[in-house]
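batch_manifest entry 22 of 60
target: NUD19 protein
source organism: Penelope pileata
requested by: lab member K.T.
priority: normal
notes from requester: please return tokens only, no post-processing; we will run our own comparison against the previous entry in this batch. if the run fails, retry once and flag.
--- input ---
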Amino acid sequence: IQWSSPPEAIELLESQEIWLAPPQFYELCRLCNFSSLRELHKFSSDRALEGCECWMPVILTASDGYIQLLPGDELYPEDPDYTGEKKITMSTEKTVEDLMREGTIFHRIVTKNINSLAVYVNIPATYKHVNPLMINTDRSDYNSKL
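--- output ---
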């Protein structure tokens, strides 16, 4: 077991020394907003009573990867399948790059392969939270409008 700071863990992911699931990558990108444990503790204490929300990522399968859509993203469904009973699948023949170029309102995690993750967020955070830093492990920018 090795302890790593959030930026170090992301570097290990980029160098393919470790693997991170998309939710953990998202949270590490959020933790990168804080330069010290003290700063994180102050932030969490200050916003502790603000509330939180439960998210259900919705997976959109593209021709060359997939996107985990999160609440607030322009492609996030109005009525997501929280239980898995509806068996809703979202897919497109478009590429991830096409979807990124066409979009304007993002709250998503893009996965091209097991070691290629990116977080794109340009909506305000709720409950006085902080958005993750937008980090892309394969350095694609998709000519983003962000």
